[in-house]
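## tool: complex_structure
## caller: assistant
## args:
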Amino acid sequence: MAKARAEIQSGEDRLIARYFKPLARHPGAFGLEDDAAILSPPAGHEVVLKTDAIVGGMHFFPNDPAAAVARKALRVNLSDLAAKGAKPAGFLLSLILPKSVSGKWIADFARGLGADAERYNCPLMGGDTDRTNGPVTISIAAFGTLPAGTMVRRSGAKVGDRVVVSGTIGDAALGLKLRQAPAIAKHWNLDAAMRKHLLGRYLVPEPRNALAEALRAHASAAMDVSDGLAGDLAKLCRASGVAAEINAARVPLSPAARKALLAGGKLIETILTGGDDYEIVATVAPSKVLSLMAAARAAGVAFCEIGVVRPGQGAQFRTPSGKALSFARPSFSHF
Amino acid sequence: MAKARAEIQSGEDRLIARYFKPLARHPGAFGLEDDAAILSPPAGHEVVLKTDAIVGGMHFFPNDPAAAVARKALRVNLSDLAAKGAKPAGFLLSLILPKSVSGKWIADFARGLGADAERYNCPLMGGDTDRTNGPVTISIAAFGTLPAGTMVRRSGAKVGDRVVVSGTIGDAALGLKLRQAPAIAKHWNLDAAMRKHLLGRYLVPEPRNALAEALRAHASAAMDVSDGLAGDLAKLCRASGVAAEINAARVPLSPAARKALLAGGKLIETILTGGDDYEIVATVAPSKVLSLMAAARAAGVAFCEIGVVRPGQGAQFRTPSGKALSFARPSFSHF
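## result:
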């Protein structure tokens, strides 16, 4: 319980003023010079609240670039706002650092965070810095707004709806395997660009905030895919009281994931259950599928139809020949 | 980067359903069964946002009772909402646990958290559980509401205003010293009740949420005292562009703190700069002092007038004879 102390303008004050105040452009952040921030949703709108933390050695590697760590910390939260159809409004940061972290690391972290705060129009509104004897730990609470009553829930899927998923699935889980055992790239017959693609998808997710409006306009249910498509879709089905039947061959894969899959091994399970995708899985009435896909394309993201909602429970993935896939562990969990 | 995995209803899902779902009584929490929560401030109101984390070995002792740790984690955030004049609306929890933490610890933590969520009418709205190789780490983001434009800022103090402080100052800092070196109680001539009082004030703060409305109605500026009265008041002065002159003899002390102070040593610095008070320091126009004190008394909390706002900068503490106190380290900082 050692307590470091400092002069009137403490070390913490200086750290915040130097690195984080430039990111606090929201008027309700008061330049980080008050105890709390103010968020005023537009009339008729609600605030969507989400928190997610990332921990060194668990969600990122201790030697990941600080800017990438910052971007991952913010983006895993932005991904949830996207899936719920909310427009980012701002975020609070808890930054918990061991003494070993350098000033350069903090500067790089703030730079990465600032770049994404600007890119996603989601300014820093406040925060807290603390010491730990453990690993770098970053907890972010992110806020979005949307017209009252329009949040896209997990629980709205209806029998007959189509199941769609954004982007490509499995890249980050394969990227993590590559990171843990780089020699596997040769075994998977990956070229340098494919290797880089998979590693990059693990290092920094690409949240689909461009899809938020299209989801609100079309989807009956949605969630972001963070713990694996199979397990997350099963959660959506449970919340909606339905089942989903998925054609595994239609799950969208990147060229790199396709090549790794062809090399054999049991990578289909890694792809469908490994997690860290930060894509969006949604259900949509058949009459709205084409319109959703057009809106997504206009927003620069592909949606792919992969299956259908049925009565029952669970998410069943089948091969083109109709064989049901079974997974040892359908969903990622730390516990 | 070991990844534990589990069946469809993962260990994390079960942990949340068992211990935390019962705390999520806010309709916008959706029983913790969606990806995000919804907060709808009343018409004409704004949302006040605050985050603060506590870390094992830094803000609490590893052997502190889990229920007390939970209450501290929530209360340090509630204290900021109180100082800003906001009514608690709900909170998000990031709970980051090493593997060594038992199911009983988590159950006790949830019980303590639930008791305070109910006591302060501040329900759990969502959260995130993660593993760490480091200490127990809890980050909470708390939300309050208030009529638009009425947040009590740090920056509103005016020359001539009186400086007031709630409750008693220094107890928690003395409690920490006692916790670190229990034999000191004898040296300070404390009886068992006094010892217990100081230890308790460090273990679990008493946020002054009962004062929120009185502050909005009367105070020109306010903040909660978490890093020591001397340093925090200096911050308020800096934000307001003024100075404060404080009669150190009028700073309210508990009988235990008074007795410890009489025993000698340099405890006045510990009392005025040690932090963890979670009291409120505010400035108020002279014409409103009596009305503020009456409102505070009606809310069950004492406010004490300790000084006056002057032109200049800094917070100056003087003895009754007029001697200025100087502190080696006026404000607590982890950095």
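## assistant note: The two ends of chain B are 29 Å apart (CA to CA). The longest strand of chain B covers residues 45-55. Handing back to user.
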